[in-house]
Amino acid sequence: MPTLLVKIFEGRSDEIKREYAKALTEASTRVLGCDADAVDVIFEEVKKSDWASAGVMWSERD
Question: Which of 32, 36, 48, 54 could form a disulfide with 59 if both were Cys (CB 3.0 to 4.6 A apart)?
Fold first, then answer.
C-alpha cells in the first residue's frame, strides 16, 4: 500500500521518472503515514496516438 499507476506520454527520461517517483513516494509517506518501502510507483508509457482528451487525439495537437 499504496501502488500508484502513472500513465504518461512516452519519451520521458529515466531521470524525470526517477524524480517523479521520489516526489510521489515522499508525498505518500507524508499524507498516508506509510513507510517509503510500502510505496510502489508504476509508469505506463502511452503513445500520443493512443490518448485523446475532449475527443481530440494528442498526436493531432502537435
Answer: 48
Q: Which one is catalytic: 1, 2, 53, 59?
A: 2
CATH topology of domain 3-51: Macrophage Migration Inhibitory Factor (3.30.429)
- Assess contact for 44 and 6: CB atoms under 8 A: yes
- pLDDT, tens only, 10-25: 999 999 999 999 999 9
Task: Decide if 55 is catalytic.
Answer: no
Under 8 Å between Cβ of 52 and 58: yes
Q: Which residues contact 34 (CB under 8 A, 6 or more apart)?
A: 1, 2, 28
- Where in the chain are the domains? 3-51
